[in-house]
Amino acid sequence: MSEHTLLPPVIGVLGAGRAGTAFARTLVKAGFEVDICSTRPPRALRHHLKIYAPGAVAVIAEDVAARTREHENGLVILAVPQEDLDDVEPEWVAGCVLVDATNAWQDEVLPGWLQAAADEQLPTSLAVAGHFSGSRVVKALNHVSHGEFDDAADRDLPLDQRRALGAAGDDGAARGLVMMLIEAMGFDPVSLGPLAAGRILEPDGPLFNRPVRRDDLLPFAR
């Protein structure tokens, strides 16, 4: 990871479901340490991780950002169902760059603050950023199926031959850091501009779960 010296050596992952463990596997393969949590206590989560994310460390939710926060640029991936976001305390990730890898599904009962944004047809990440106001939120990692994530990530390929992933965020430095992470994980990162631009990455958008390249994403950049 010498080419990505701004990245913390430890990444936090909030959520140990299929998406969270896919991110964790890819991060561990890329040389990062991963602290991951779920609604289960760490002792109950360890066996699950041995199967689905070997090398990741189970922690309590309150400590998911503790080690990554020790570095200048703490970084946590938010990978819990949107219907469960009220179970995540904003102070757990305060001061960190928070990668919003969540998606809105039609059958979910959303928290009131998130449903209000959906009713106004706003990008959900804007509401996530408002709720987690102590973090710098970047929308990314949500438009690749967790079932394809391992195979889609390929650090051995040149950038222009990798699958492209978009990143949108109002804080340019935070967006740049997440793009470094995307590259380190084995993808080609593309800046889409401000957080609102992340709407095109959502399930009803033109890029969701499509094996896109950089040229497919650039027309949507702001």
Automatic annotation (TrEMBL):
<dbReference type="GO" id="GO:0008823">
    <property type="term" value="F:cupric reductase (NADH) activity"/>
</dbReference>
<dbReference type="GO" id="GO:0015677">
    <property type="term" value="P:copper ion import"/>
</dbReference>
<feature type="domain" description="Pyrroline-5-carboxylate reductase catalytic N-terminal">
    <location>
        <begin position="11"/>
        <end position="103"/>
    </location>
</feature>
<dbReference type="GO" id="GO:0052851">
    <property type="term" value="F:ferric-chelate reductase (NADPH) activity"/>
</dbReference>
<dbReference type="InterPro" id="IPR051267">
    <property type="entry name" value="STEAP_metalloreductase"/>
</dbReference>
<dbReference type="InterPro" id="IPR028939">
    <property type="entry name" value="P5C_Rdtase_cat_N"/>
</dbReference>
<keyword id="KW-0560">Oxidoreductase</keyword>
<dbReference type="Pfam" id="PF03807">
    <property type="entry name" value="F420_oxidored"/>
</dbReference>
<dbReference type="GO" id="GO:0005886">
    <property type="term" value="C:plasma membrane"/>
</dbReference>
<dbReference type="InterPro" id="IPR036291">
    <property type="entry name" value="NAD(P)-bd_dom_sf"/>
</dbReference>
<protein>
    <recommendedName>
        <fullName>Pyrroline-5-carboxylate reductase catalytic N-terminal domain-containing protein</fullName>
    </recommendedName>
</protein>
